[in-house]
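for the writeup, i need someone to sanity check this before i put it in the appendix. the sequnce is what the collaborator sent (i think, or maybe the updated version? ugh). structure was predicted straight from it, no edits. if anything looks off just tell me and ill rerun, i have time this weekend
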Amino acid sequence: MNVRSPVLHPVGVYGRSGIHDPALRRGYEACRRVARVTGEIEYAVSLLLPPPLRTATWALYGALGTVDDLADSAEPPHTTGTGRAERLEAWISAFDADLRDGRGTDPVRQALIHTMLTWNLPPGFMHTLFEQLRQDLHGRRFATWQEWRRYSGLVNTPFVLRTGSLLLRVAGLSAEPEAIAAGVPDAAVAWQTAVDAVYLTDALVDLSEDLARGHVPLPQEALDETGVLRADLLDRRSTPAFEELVRRLADRARGWLDRTPVPPVLHPAVGIALGAYTDLYRLRLAAVADAPAALLERRPALPRSARLRVLLPARARAALAWALFPFPVRPCPPPAPADASDASDAPDAPEGLGMAAEVRRLAAERRPTVPPTPHSSGARPPRLPAEAMPRHVAIVMDGNGRWATARGLPRTDGHRAGAEALIDVVHGALEIGLKYLTVYAFSTENWKRPADELHALMYEIPSLLRRITNDPQPLDVRVRWAGVRSRLPADVIETLAEAERTTRDRTALTLTMCVNYGGRAEITAAAAHLAQEAAAGRIDPGAVSEHAFARCLHVPELPDVDLLLRTGGDQRTSNFLPWQSTYAELLFLDTPWPEVDRRDLWNALEQYARRTRRYGSVPRVPAQSPGR
């Protein structure tokens, strides 16, 4: 049984949270009951928070528990789980439809969507959770700890960080946790480690339920370390090796918790709540280690007396902290400006390093670049008049998955083939003298894709960048990144930032990688930044111009797109560079991206050269058909 809040009845909590509509209250109350049952520790800690944060936490964890129960509900004998899959997909489809309408059609979704809109939470993090539940229907298998932790980073961390973003706003911070991590050394690694500790603890606690579904939630590498057989686990057979495995994993999770400091930017009461949260998880790990064999049959219970020893003092200290430091909790603050370009544009020389020393450091880092490799067919680029040559080409690289599916291959093979196509196109862009090439590598909507495809993309993007920037003989290509850090794995962010840093003095071609990019989000963030500047009195609202707005975009120096090319047969721009592509010529190819090479780029440039560009005035004379 959970410890009840001695302060406010739920009705009072809803009133102080500004939730007065009876139907909406019923939705929050449904979420509260689910959170109390399915998130014992999370619910207990939520009672340490002020009412607006408390109800938001109930909505998030209550919705998660509801959908999780939907996926885990028992099936009639001799069924394959199809019914569970259908119910899950129906709930997800209804969530998407309700979110578009801004209201829920059942109580739990109503509370969830109200929370997301009130606190300006991006919807994509829910789809990573939906994908986890889809995988749970059939079970997931991890070969190594690295795979296990990467999956945790892609699936579990986004939900935890969205909850964390609520706590940050108590301190008056509008930045997302990922933006804070960019400015606080090692914060991203620390937060990921904390999520891994919680995820590993829950994997042990829920082991009996997972085994009942035929799922072993631990990496094979962990089983091999102690000689535990997967078959023994599925048969619920306790062995000395299994008990040793449990104790080792409990020690590992405890060590991860011990290495996770409370971020220094939080309100004192939030720090108290997080401290209680980790203490309760340590109690849970102690219960796990005390009776390893019992995990095969049931969830371990937290001793009530031990829970009270943690929660009662925490409640007293949190109440005092809220009384002494009554920060107003304001939902939905203006979003922070896009952080990708901010971080990449910041000087990375040590403080106080002189300009001459910086120049010497860059010169020492620079390796000689090499010309592009000719095409294997011997084809050469066409000769285009300078006035007919576009300056900036943007490409939606579409059709990877369909290309692979048509050949009976996994969709992940399509992304690998697509990476090879991009390498060839970059060589072709260098050969013909294109100055700016921008590619849509991963959109903010792509998080809805299956987990194995996300794994492949998060591997292929850094691998491709390393081939361009870190080969023994690199190309003369400057890399820029347009997009946001939110939800990207730390190694992907690091690779993108490093590619920008190490190539910033290259001049032949600027390759902009749009990774975790959304055009509307970019425009919204730029508008929010200008609004903040105006509110602070740093700019005159009447003086805001297109140029001032463009300076707030992810890559401010990126020129307007002259030619926007999309492969794969679809004829839409899909939220890609809407500001920069206002006057772009559009060209759509039926060819899937993996079949494209530099010759297709050259052909597109020839078509562009023959088009008439007006820009609202007298047209220029199109180029004559150029020869090769």
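The chain is about 55% helix and 5% strand. The beta strands are 392-396, 436-443, 477-482, 509-517, 563-566, 585-588.
thx in advance!!
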